[in-house]
Amino acid sequence: MKLYLISDNLDTQMGMRLAGIDGVVVHGEQETAQALSSAMEKSDIGIILMTPEAVKCCSELVSKYKLERATPLITEIPDRHAETDVTAAISRYLREAVGV
Prior knowledge:
- The protein has a single domain (2-98), classed as ATPase, V1 complex, subunit F (Rossmann fold), CATH 3.40.50.
- Helices cover 50% and strands 20% of the residues.
- The chain has five helices and four strands, in the order E-H-E-H-E-H-H-E-H.
- The protein has helices at 10-18, 29-40, 52-57, 59-68, 86-98; strands spanning 2-7, 22-25, 45-50, 73-76.
- The protein has a four-stranded parallel beta sheet with strand order 2-1-3-4, sandwiched between helices.
- The protein is globular, with a radius of gyration of 13 Å.
- The mean pLDDT is 87.
């Protein structure tokens, strides 16, 4: 299973690409929703990582997929524009993903 990134900025995509994670940079609600729907249909993707702005663009679709589909897991990751404490955000993501 692979990780896949949907980001609203090139910096996050470049950083993830250096870690071996493929992804796409999107702009706007329609492009974000299309990228998410496309990623959800790929059988080799296990986790979809999304930046906060990308999630905001299609929050209803993200919620729908989270409720209706067990896989792939959709999780929000902080980017360089994050307004929250990164350590707290990562802990929250782990709790949501693993239940710990």
